[in-house]
């Protein structure tokens, strides 16, 4: 599954292609992508929207529109985006949605295993939606070792399990948690709530360097 660094790479690649562009036409080719909503309804609502920004929160891509609406994308296991000329994605059986932009290009969403999701949120819905599912951003400058300790305090579960819990820290998965723990010289089965201040500092450095 794409983790925080990979999702950030996708965000950075989409940003120059999308900002300021209008969604001329949207085709949703797989109903699973937007369920429980109806594909034709979501496609119709997205048509005409103009992209204001492309952001990331945890493993989510956050595509903000000038209208105040947001398209929230989770890539899950195999989701990806392909940029190309109009009609260039038509022969790919794994394309689940295509957005035709006002500059004549297409943005195709491709997902072999079909686990990815798109959710169209109205103004004001994004923050409560994400706050109910995600914890702090570990790469944020304001996030300190003390804040990390507060997230882990009192938790008897293993350190690895606590770090994988998206409600504790957003965006970390198996690969980067294992690497961070190795760099911090901490055993993954250690109780999460037992770390000393020096260990918390090592762990935060390990997360950021991984």
Q: What can you tell me about this protein's structure?
A:
This protein has helices at residues 4-18, 39-46, 126-131, 145-152, 159-164, 174-184, 197-209, and strands at 23-28, 51-57, 60-65, 70-74, 79-85, 95-101, 105-111, 117-121. It folds into two domains: 4-131, N-terminal domain of MutM-like DNA repair proteins; 145-209, Helicase, Ruva Protein, domain 3 (Orthogonal Bundle), CATH 1.10.8. α4 crosses α7 (197-209) and α6 crosses α7 (197-209). A hairpin with a 3-residue loop joins β6 and β7. The protein is built from seven helices and eight strands. It is of the alpha+beta class and 210 residues long. The protein has a four-stranded antiparallel β-sheet with strand order 1-6-7-5. The chain has a four-stranded antiparallel β-sheet with strand order 2-3-4-8, with helices on one face.
Strand-helix topology:
Elements: H1 4-18, E1 23-28, H2 39-46, E2 51-57, E3 60-65, E4 70-74, E5 79-85, E6 95-101, E7 105-111, E8 117-121, H3 126-131, H4 145-152, H5 159-164, H6 174-184, H7 197-209
Antiparallel strand pairs: 1-6, 2-3, 3-4, 4-8, 5-7, 6-7
Helix pairs in contact: 4-7, 6-7
Tally of individual helices? 7
What general outline do the C-alpha atoms trace?
A: elongated
Instruction: Provide the CATH architecture of the largest domain.
Output: Alpha-Beta Barrel
Name given to the CATH homologous superfamily of the largest domain = MutM-like, N-terminal
What is the CATH topology classification name of the largest domain? N-terminal domain of MutM-like DNA repair proteins
């Amino acid at each position: 599954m794409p983790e925080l660094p990979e999702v950030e790479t996708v965000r950075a690649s989409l940003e120059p292609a999308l900002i300021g562009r209008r969604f001329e036409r949207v085709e949703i080719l797989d109903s699973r992508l937007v369920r429980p909503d109806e594909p034709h309804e979501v496609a119709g609502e997205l048509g005409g929207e103009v992209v204001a920004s492309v952001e990331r929160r945890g493993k989510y891509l956050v595509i903000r529109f000038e209208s105040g609406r947001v398209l929230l994308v989770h890539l899950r296991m195999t989701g990806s985006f392909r940029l190309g000329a109009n009609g260039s994605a038509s022969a790919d059986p794994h394309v689940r949605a295509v957005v035709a932009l006002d500059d004549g290009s297409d943005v195709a969403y491709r997902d072999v295993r079909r686990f990815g999701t798109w959710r169209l949120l109205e103004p004001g819905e994004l923050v409560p939606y994400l706050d109910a599912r995600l914890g702090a951003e570990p790469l944020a400058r304001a996030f300190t070792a003390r804040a990390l300790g507060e997230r882990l305090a009192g938790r008897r579960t293993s350190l690895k399990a606590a770090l994988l819990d998206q409600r504790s820290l957003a965006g970390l998965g198996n690969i980067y948690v294992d690497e961070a723990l190795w760099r911090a010289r901490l055993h993954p089965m250690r109780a999460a709530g037992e770390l000393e201040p020096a260990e918390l500092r090592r762990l935060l450095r390990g997360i950021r360097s991984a």
